[in-house]
Structures are given as structure tokens and as C-alpha cells.
Hints:
Blueprint: E1 4-8, E2 14-16, H1 19-24, E3 28-30, E4 33-34, H2 45-48, H3 56-60, E5 65-69, H4 72-79, E6 85-88, H5 99-102, H6 105-114, E7 119-124, H7 133-137, E8 142-147, H8 153-159, H9 166-178, E9 183-190, H10 195-206, E10 210-214, H11 229-235, H12 243-256, E11 261-263, H13 264-268
Helix pairs in contact: 4-6, 9-10, 10-12
Bound molecules: iron/sulfur cluster.
Iron/sulfur cluster binds next to loops.
Amino acid sequence: MLYSIREQTSRTILSRTSGFLLAAGFTHSLTPARNCTFGCSYCYVPTMRVQGGLRPEDWRHWGHHTTFKSNAGELLRRELRPEQVIYCSPLTDPYQPAEGERRLMPEVLAEVGANPPGMFVMQTRGPLILRDLELLQAIPRLRISFSVTTDDEAVRQRFEPHCAPLAERLRVMRTLRAAGLRVHATLAPLLPCDPGRLAAMVLEATGEDLIGDPLHVRSEKPRGATTREAGLRLLERYPDFDSAAALATIEQAAIGAGRRFGTGPAAFGWLTTPA
Ligand code: SF4
């Protein structure tokens, strides 16, 4: 996708959490940019509109541009505290394609490594994270939550054409793990897939508990962020996909491997525990 990169200074970089993230045990979130150049068809963020800190140009042109918080490093130097439990990032992928050119995350991670919080959780699906491996290794209490949505490459290309294929994501998770980092596969949102096959692959790659979330639809989630229209239209092509049955299959696979599988804030809360 063609996208443009913008810059803006911010007054703050860490936000107090509420709702889902607070219930999961996070005290703060860190969002390095506004809008996300992965531009996934189902992304919940643009449906949050002003509640997500967005401007109309963001939710109308999701993925077409991104605005980096250019003073992120300086702000972190002032705002980081040892008791914070930080989620990075609820509103954009820190390793979105535009990060390859802008390179804001090395500054962010250097500050986090110099003044480490109680726990720092990186949520991403971007193979670009490997660029910053040494900086990640310098953060003492870190978990990586790596998004994987399907084992079906045709489904992946339909719903998230600008994201990496499954094989590459598995390779990235294995590399992070081999480097001594704890990386969880986050099956969220769970797209049409062969759930048993998907679970086996990510369990082998990470060796950790699995976290998931079904693709929300407005009828099941009357308030708050939900799936974009573009994602819902694509989902209509898979009327036989039963996400409840898929989640049950994944849970059985996790139990069989001696691991847990969960959804919602309770499962995301597993990421906040240092052990
Ligand atoms: S990577 Fe995440 S934040 Fe970015 S568009 Fe996709 S779902 Fe949204």
C-alpha cells in the first residue's frame, strides 16, 4: 500500500488505561503513532474514532498515512516509572511498515531499557521487530505478544494483505524465542482457519500459553470498538466458519501441549506477570 508519513510532537506518551487493558492488569499504554500502515480490513481502532484519539482523516483513510509522535523518546524519559505495567500499543502496530523508514522504536526501546517499568508488553505482527532485537534483550521484564490470525494464506491475503505470511511470522517468533525472549502467539482476531493446525504451529514456535479473541461483530458486542465494515464484508464469504468451535479446538490443542488457552482480559493478563 502507498502511504505517507507525518510527524507531530505530543504532550504525553503514556496514557492511563481503562476498560479491557485495565481489566487485564495494565496501568499504562504507549502508542508511538496515530493510524497504522498495515491497514487491516477488520481493524477495530478506526471504529473508536475520537475515543481512540483519532481524527476524521485517520478513520476515513485507515492505513493510508501515519503520524509519528516525534518526541516519544524525550517524553518517555520524563514519564517512565518502575511500577508501571505498559502495553505497547493498543492503537497502532509499533512495527507497522512505516516504522521501517521512520525508526522511532529504537529510541522508544532505548528509553524503556534505561528506565524499565514493572512490565513492558509489545504487541505486534511485524517481522521488523527483529531489527531491534538487542534493544529488546536489554529490557529486563518484557513479553512479546505476536499476532497470528489464520493458517490459511488465502484468508490472510484477503483480510490483511499488507501483513507478513504465517511462515514468516513463525520464523520471527522462533527467532525471538531463541534469543531468550518470551513470546506468546496471540490468535486475535481469529480469522477462518484450520484451528488444530494453527494451534500446533504456534505452540511449537513459542512454547507458551496461547491467547485469542474471536472477530467481534456488532450484534455480539453492542458497545465500543468493533470490526470494520471491510472486514465484515469479507467474513460473509466464510459462512461455515464456526469461531466458537475453532476456539474450543485451540483450547484442546493447548491443553494437550500442557499449555493454557484463554480469551478476553483474563488471558491478556497472563502477559503482565513477570514469571
Ligand atoms: S496491525 Fe493492528 S493496529 Fe494495525 S491495522 Fe492491523 S489490526 Fe489495526
